[in-house]
Amino acid sequence: MSYKVSSFIKLFFVTVVLFAFYSCSSPDEKKEEGSELPKDGSKGTMVTAPEKKPLLLLTDRPPNLETPLKYFLEDFTPNDVFFVRWHLSNLPTQINADTFRLRVSGNVNSKLELSLTDLKTKFKSYSVNAVCECAGNSRNNFNPRVPGAQWTNGGMGNAKWTGVKLKDVLEMAKSKSNSKFVSFNGMDAPPLPTIPDFVKSLDYNHSIDGEVMIAYEMNGQALPLLNGYPLKLVVPGWYATYWIGMLNEIKVYPDTFKGYWMDKAYLVPRGIKNGNEKPDSLAKNLVPINKLDVRSIFVAPEPGTVASVGVNTEIQGLALDGGDGIEKVEISNDSGKTWTAAKLDASLGNYSWRRWRYNFKPTAAGTYKFFVKATNTKNETQPWHQWNRSGFMRNEIESLVIKVK
Ligand SMILES: Nc1nc2c(c(=O)[nH]1)N[C@H]1C(S)=C(S)[C@@H](COP(=O)(O)O)O[C@H]1N2
Ligand SMILES: [Mo]
């Protein structure tokens, strides 16, 4: 069996479909001061990539594609609209499922070379519902603007991940108990020798917590190539930068792991809530980004929807956090003076997002501005203002304007 997407990069270029009037803002394009930043990229450039429905194009080389907001009406984000994010443009266009091997080496007593069949037959399978959220999701909302892919809110998705526990794989490799770190590398490669390979690491103790896993399926099917076929590391509750796709190399270290993507990139202010800092006084102590912070977003109605007096309009959205669990979601339409609880749908697990709903039945015409705020079981909530130099961990309280006629 061979899994093949024939020269998909070429395909990628010729299938760009321009949606009239608006073009997607490139990362370094400056917007006019004071101009409204698009809240939802749905007016941007759409692209059809292999195994995908049209998605919002952020960059084409490497492919970075955003999920249009309308797909967040579904609890599980379908594979064919799941966002795509790669750092290095040298991606395999074809992976042979028969010859593929996952290598485990380093501070272990028995090195492994596992085939996909080994993973599916020699280990107990395990599933978790979890949100995969890019650290830079919603970067487009930061003011002042920060460089990097200008995601709106579609740089995340929720899926049921199925595979094996990393702990079980490390156990089979007889990893040594003095181990400190584990690194993860995928089959993507830098286009130039000056660009460091994308390798991430986790503490050894985190790696054997029984939750970090190696997924061979998302939502009951093999992963799309663009989401990391055939294997993706799943780190529930942590930002997606650790969720290495096309994973084929795991190394165990008795001492520290050093690498550009851990030491120089994906850093956030140490010990500061919501990764906050000020443009004119940047934080001095930085640490690798880790757990998702608590946030909530609006999904419906679409911005610009006009509601009618006396008619019920359901406002709905999603809330998520790093796995402590959403305790409540509240709505305000008086700039935060008073808050009313939204209804929560049943939990799909603490690492999944949770849908909230709020019924709005206006008694008078006018313009209403709604704010949404989630709080988790640790009483962590969202800030009114947030900024950091890299545009990470966006969780500022969001708003939605509804006109009533
Ligand atoms: N091998 C590899 N894995 C990777 C990356 C990458 O560039 N290469 N990017 C990471 C980042 S930053 C994100 S946001 C997620 C995106 O996963 P997706 O493409 O399935 O949406 O993959 C992560 N895993
Ligand atoms: Mo990311």
Notes on the protein architecture:
This protein has helices at 8-14, 116-121, 166-172, 204-207, 260-263, and strands at 3-4, 16-17, 46-47, 55-60, 63-66, 84-85, 94-95, 102-106, 112-114, 126-133, 156-165, 181-186, 199-203, 213-218, 221-222, 232-234, 247-253, 267-269, 286-288, 295-300, 306-307, 313-320, 326-332, 340-341, 343-344, 354-360, 366-376, 398-404. The chain folds into three domains: 2-81, no CATH class; 94-144 and 153-288, Oxidoreductase, molybdopterin-binding domain (Sulfite Oxidase, Chain A, domain 2); 295-404, Immunoglobulin-like. The strands form seven sheets. The chain has a five-stranded antiparallel beta sheet with strand order 2-3-4-5-6. It starts with a strand and ends with a strand. A hairpin with a 2-residue loop joins strand 4 and strand 5 (63-66). Mean pLDDT is 90; it is low at 6-42. The longest helix has 7 residues, at 8-14. With 405 residues, the chain is mostly beta strands. It is built from five helices and 28 strands. Bound molecules: the ligand Nc1nc2c(c(=O)[nH]1)N[C@H]1C(S)=C(S)[C@@H](COP(=O)(O)O)O[C@H]1N2 and molybdenum atom. Ligand MTE binds at residues 82-88, 132, 134, 186, 188, 198, 227-228, 240-241, 243-246.
